[in-house]
Write a structure and sequence with these properties.
By secondary structure, this protein is α/β, with parallel strands linked by helices. It has helices at 15-27, 49-54, 68-73, 140-153, 165-176, 196-208, 256-260, 307-321, 351-356, 405-417, 422-425, 442-451, and strands at 7-11, 32-37, 78-81, 83-89, 94-99, 104-109, 112-115, 119-121, 134-135, 157-161, 180-184, 212-214, 219-224, 230-235, 238-241, 244-247, 251-253, 284-286, 293-294, 301-302, 335-339, 342-348, 361-369, 380-388, 394-401. It has 3 domains: 7-46 and 62-119 and 252-321, FAD/NAD(P)-binding domain; 123-249, FAD/NAD(P)-binding domain (3-Layer(bba) Sandwich), CATH 3.50.50.60; 344-451, Enolase-like, domain 1 (2-Layer Sandwich). It is built from 12 helices and 25 strands. The strands form 7 sheets. The protein has a 5-stranded parallel beta sheet. It has a 5-stranded parallel beta sheet with strand order 9-16-10-11-12. Strands 21-22-25-24-23 form a 5-stranded antiparallel beta sheet, with helices on both faces. Strand 24 and strand 25 form a beta hairpin.
Length: 457
């Protein structure tokens, strides 16, 4: 790692890759930085795409965080769109790529390389799922295809396969486009990454909105019309009409390049990295949905695909690849989402996960108001905490309600990042004013309840 660094090559022009390239430019102004992107779009805010489809975001261009022109001219990055990286030779320190415009292959040498090819949506091997009215959402082109189909074909019924975060966000988006929506989910609850006491509140809210929930109903087949379009979905032994189908079955890390270059993968199946985002090859770093993270709560390696994580990892990777020094201290798997009027936040471990890991834990569920009861707009907010039975270290939290979920989720994330006990978190000096919170915030109520259950040994 002591040799001079003249050229950095970055694979992927999304959150992780562009964060790496931008940070590298600040650290090393004279460095040649080449960024390859297979698609024609760069710096897309993927998390914003459901809200573009829903109509909350009116201008399609607003989901582009930084334009291609700005990346090239203001940040001095050699960003090459529609360039598909085909392989890496770590011994020769070269990358082979295809220019998709000319359909010609080329080779480029690197001193340092950052891998950030992201992840790809899961499509089960069921006949008919490549029909024109079956969609995923993992790119701006995917969003365009969904909006074009709705505008041109006017579908009335949609089936969403999968009840996780993206499924629930697309549920609202499709409902706002006046479609009647059914969620097909193989698990007994939506939001399988959360606990049942909280997901039951979400399910009740969805049913009030007229959503059909087909739970414990694995997808079995799709029924095609003579024109090759899906007409219905069969799940759990029942048939549901479908003018369009949306697959929300999760994603897999894109690790083909790493595997072929014999870069080590971790136990999760994603690329293994150290605290500096360095891979098993001294000159190659990785960031974003393609690689693992360190879980602050348990110390184990996990794969959690979030934009917040990708940006932070990219910054660390770019710093170190350009000759600087910084470390990524890990994640608490903090996430938040909403569907219709209900907000859902989580951080750390759920009870299901704590049980699976064999931890000695306790839980509490507390209810409070999001604001002072005398102030308009106050809503009930539910907080569940998972904590160590002995000592009371906070292991995880989940928050559900129609108001104020973000603030409570972030408070719990801060407590967990600093490895606090529930008793220590209960002493937080949180802000109070009737428009924002009651004098005893929901987090403090939950932590005080939890402290009563903590054992000293």
């Amino acid at each position: 790692m002591g040799r001079s660094i003249n050229r950095l090559v970055v694979v992927g022009a999304s959150a992780g890759g562009l964060s790496a390239a931008s940070r590298a430019r600040r650290v090393n102004p004279g460095l040649e930085i080449v960024v390859f992107e297979k698609t024609e779009h760069v710096s897309v805010g993927f998390c914003e795409l459901p809200y573009l489809i829903a109509g909350y975001i009116k201008d399609r261009g607003e989901v582009i965080a930084v334009s291609l022109k700005d990346l090239r001219e203001r940040r001095n990055l050699d960003v090459r769109i529609r360039h598909d990286v085909l392989g890496i030779n770590p011994t020769a320190k070269t990358v082979t790529y295809r220019d998709l415009e000319s359909d010609k292959e080329h080779e480029i040498a690197y001193d340092r390389l950052v891998l950030s090819p992201g992840a790809s949506p899961i499509r089960p091997p069921i006949p008919g799922l490549k029909s024109p009215n079956v969609f995923v959402l993992h790119s701006l082109a995917d969003a365009d295809a969904i909006m074009d189909y709705i505008r041109e074909r006017g579908p009335k019924n949609a089936v969403i396969v999968g009840g996780g975060y993206i499924g629930l966000e697309m549920l609202e988006a499709l409902s706002r486009n006046e479609l009647s929506v059914t969620i097909v989910e193989m698990l007994p609850n939506v939001l399988g990454t959360m606990d049942d006491e909280l997901t039951s509140l979400v399910e009740a809210h969805l049913e009030k909105q007229g959503v059909t929930l087909a739970l414990s109903s694995p997808l079995e087949k799709v029924v095609l019309g003579d024109d090759g379009y899906v007409r219905a979905v069969v799940a759990g032994g029942k048939q549901y009409p479908a003018d369009m189908v949306f697959l929300a079955l999760g994603i897999r890390p894109n690790v083909n390049l790493a595997e072929e270059a014999r870069i080590q993968l971790g136990g999760t199946g994603a690329i293994a990295t150290d605290w500096k985002q360095k891979t098993s090859d001294e000159s190659i770093f990785a960031a974003g949905d393609c690689c693992e993270s360190q879980d602050i709560v348990t110390g184990r390696k996990v794969w959690v695909a979030l934009g917040t994580t990708a940006n932070k990892q990219g910054r660390i990777a770019g710093d170190n690849a350009a000759g600087g020094y910084s470390v990524f201290k890990g994640i608490t798997s903090t996430a938040i989402s909403k569907t219709f009027d209900i907000e859902i936040g989580r951080v750390g471990l759920t009870e299901k996960e704590a049980k699976k890991l064999g931890l000695d834990y306790e839980t509490v569920v507390a209810s409070a108001r999001s604001r002072s009861g005398t102030y308009p707009g106050a809503r009930k907010i539910r907080v569940k905490l998972v904590f160590e039975r002995v000592g009371g270290r906070l292991l995880g939290g989940q928050v559900v309600g129609e108001d104020g979920v973000l603030a409570r989720t972030n408070v719990l994330a801060c407590a967990m990042f600093n490895r606090l006990t529930v008793e220590e978190a209960a002493r937080y000096d949180l802000a109070y004013a009737p428009p924002f919170a009651p004098v005893w915030d929901a987090v403090l109520v939950a932590c005080n309840l939890a402290a009563k259950k903590v054992k000293t040994r």
